[in-house]
Amino acid sequence: MIVWLNGTHGAGKTTTAALVQPLIPDSRVFDAEKVGETLMDITPGLPRTDNFQHWPPWRPLVVETARRVLDYTGGTLVMPMTVLVERYWREIGAGLAHHGIPVRHFVLHADQDTLRGRIEGDTVLGPSPFRLRYLELYAEAARTWLHAEAEVVDTTHLTPAQAARRIAEAVRS
């Protein structure tokens, strides 16, 4: 099984994933961003883009990597990864379904002011124009398709530990 934690930057996906993992037996975290980083390291480079998800190989490589890891380890993968393009989400979902891999899709949501504050106040990554650019894309995806495709966990007033417990409880039930 895959527990996919979606949502935009500042929602708490990475932090929450690390807290969900010990709450779900036989689980491990797989950050699909690492697949994108691998593609970014190819030299000479792939065509320029502002987001590695736009490279057609990224999506099937995420599916294939998740499948291979699950074939090897079994259990559950907790995957913190923003996917805001519906076509990309459908492609990944269809690929996982083709391999019989069930997905529990959660969206970590927070209001725009909270997200902006978290991004601007990030003491690890610092304020990031790249991350701020995705706030509007997230709002549009949430309004048009994303929230209908997932279990929404509003993190506006939750700690990451509280969000993790809610997700783990939902998965176990």
UniProtKB/TrEMBL annotation:
<protein>
    <submittedName>
        <fullName>AAA family ATPase</fullName>
    </submittedName>
</protein>
<dbReference type="InterPro" id="IPR027417">
    <property type="entry name" value="P-loop_NTPase"/>
</dbReference>
